[in-house]
Amino acid sequence: MLLALPDEAFAPFGPDGLSAGDTAWVLTAAALVLFMTPGLAFFYGGLSRQKSVLNMMMMSFGSIGVVSVIYVLWGYSMSFSSAHTGEGDILGIFDNPFSLFGVSQLLETRVIDGADTFVLGGFGTVPAIVWVGFQLTFAVITVALISGAVAERMKFGTWLVFGGIWVTLVYFPLAHMVWGGGLLSGAENGFAAWLFGTSTAEDGSVSATVAPIDFAGGTVVHINAGVAALVLAILLGKRTSFGKSTFRPHNIPFVMLGAAILWFGWFGFNVGSEGAADMIAGQVWVNTTAATAAAMLGWLLVERLRDGHATSVGAASGIVAGLVAITPACGALSPIGSLILGGVAGALSSLAIALKYKLGYDDSLDVVGVHLVSGLWGTIGIGLLALDTGLFYGGGIQQLVVQFVIAAIAVVFTAIMTTIIAFLVKPLGWRISKEDEHTGIDETVHAETAYELV
């Protein structure tokens, strides 16, 4: 019988070690991460001008629609199929790329102790079908994050097509490299094993001596989205009034609400990545809170020293910077290390948002300054602050080298692939007209306005 799980399978551990508590937590975490994308819509929408807020929010909601469908059809298979079979290429591009293998395998049953149950697919105490749902939400928000760099000027239809192609050719392969046993994982066929050798565990499994650490998506989500945002901002060009007029957020309470939802949902993002309700999950929760609070204060301190004011938008942006930085590191640091990582992230991102004016690219809502900069710092900072293996904890330089290399590979891979996809999509038309941009993308593209002011 498909989709039938006997009651005794969750009492509290089933015949294959399924845990009702862990499963319930990961399902809850998946819902929290999905909620983050509407939160991002409020965050980005509030930062936008009044005449483009609906389009900005629609780009996030559109990502939910496109990416969710694609993830079920072939996204999970490309990202994790070899994690079930134990075999496959290191990039994930050729692992059953356009099949239902990954999901359909999870819906098969087998008889255990006389009862039909799921195959687990190698995700411990959580049924793998639950992991499908959890990972789907990561793919959704990664695409949505990119949209902040192209606000007010990109055609909505082109955005949806780009998102579908990008998640297939960039996100899924990178997820496989990091989490699916590929090039950037700790597997014996990864670069870290080639660089520093392998070790054999008691159960006979072979892995890298010094494994890359990306607990919840520093490379896969934030560096990935940040680099894609930078490439699109450069190729798409500046808004017509960029550098000539001031772009002020039209609704700062929306920004604060969005930041609050993101912080709330991020506990699903980070803590859910443990895959269990255990002590490590508790450590991740505390580390996530510590880094985020410190980053907010770090951003506000830079604002106060530089501009003479500590702003609400700065507080919200600092929160996001801290969440981004701690994402890859949350399972590897102590709470004190998390405070250091977060404080530095908030200061770095606060300083980095001015780069777009100096270098001349129009990253509308500072995706590069926040997600790329804090994502890079969070990933590389692990090599300094990780317990046992970090340089500051007597672990030597090996972890730092590994973290630097995985960050560099992610940057190069995403930059090249995003550029190729951008030119593939170019015939569809990237930008709305100057007249439509002046009138407002909400009215000209969606035939709506956020506020009916009579």
TrEMBL record:
<keyword id="KW-0924">Ammonia transport</keyword>
<feature type="transmembrane region" description="Helical">
    <location>
        <begin position="56"/>
        <end position="74"/>
    </location>
</feature>
<feature type="transmembrane region" description="Helical">
    <location>
        <begin position="158"/>
        <end position="179"/>
    </location>
</feature>
<dbReference type="Pfam" id="PF00909">
    <property type="entry name" value="Ammonium_transp"/>
</dbReference>
<feature type="transmembrane region" description="Helical">
    <location>
        <begin position="280"/>
        <end position="302"/>
    </location>
</feature>
<keyword id="KW-1133">Transmembrane helix</keyword>
<feature type="transmembrane region" description="Helical">
    <location>
        <begin position="309"/>
        <end position="326"/>
    </location>
</feature>
<keyword id="KW-0472">Membrane</keyword>
<keyword id="KW-0813">Transport</keyword>
<feature type="transmembrane region" description="Helical">
    <location>
        <begin position="24"/>
        <end position="44"/>
    </location>
</feature>
<dbReference type="InterPro" id="IPR001905">
    <property type="entry name" value="Ammonium_transpt"/>
</dbReference>
<keyword id="KW-0812">Transmembrane</keyword>
<feature type="transmembrane region" description="Helical">
    <location>
        <begin position="332"/>
        <end position="355"/>
    </location>
</feature>
<feature type="transmembrane region" description="Helical">
    <location>
        <begin position="215"/>
        <end position="237"/>
    </location>
</feature>
<feature type="transmembrane region" description="Helical">
    <location>
        <begin position="128"/>
        <end position="151"/>
    </location>
</feature>
<dbReference type="GO" id="GO:0008519">
    <property type="term" value="F:ammonium channel activity"/>
</dbReference>
<dbReference type="InterPro" id="IPR024041">
    <property type="entry name" value="NH4_transpt_AmtB-like_dom"/>
</dbReference>
<dbReference type="GO" id="GO:0005886">
    <property type="term" value="C:plasma membrane"/>
</dbReference>
<dbReference type="InterPro" id="IPR029020">
    <property type="entry name" value="Ammonium/urea_transptr"/>
</dbReference>
<protein>
    <recommendedName>
        <fullName>Ammonium transporter</fullName>
    </recommendedName>
</protein>
<feature type="transmembrane region" description="Helical">
    <location>
        <begin position="249"/>
        <end position="268"/>
    </location>
</feature>
<dbReference type="InterPro" id="IPR018047">
    <property type="entry name" value="Ammonium_transpt_CS"/>
</dbReference>
<feature type="domain" description="Ammonium transporter AmtB-like">
    <location>
        <begin position="24"/>
        <end position="451"/>
    </location>
</feature>
<comment type="similarity">
    <text>Belongs to the ammonia transporter channel (TC 1.A.11.2) family.</text>
</comment>
<feature type="transmembrane region" description="Helical">
    <location>
        <begin position="367"/>
        <end position="394"/>
    </location>
</feature>
<feature type="transmembrane region" description="Helical">
    <location>
        <begin position="400"/>
        <end position="425"/>
    </location>
</feature>
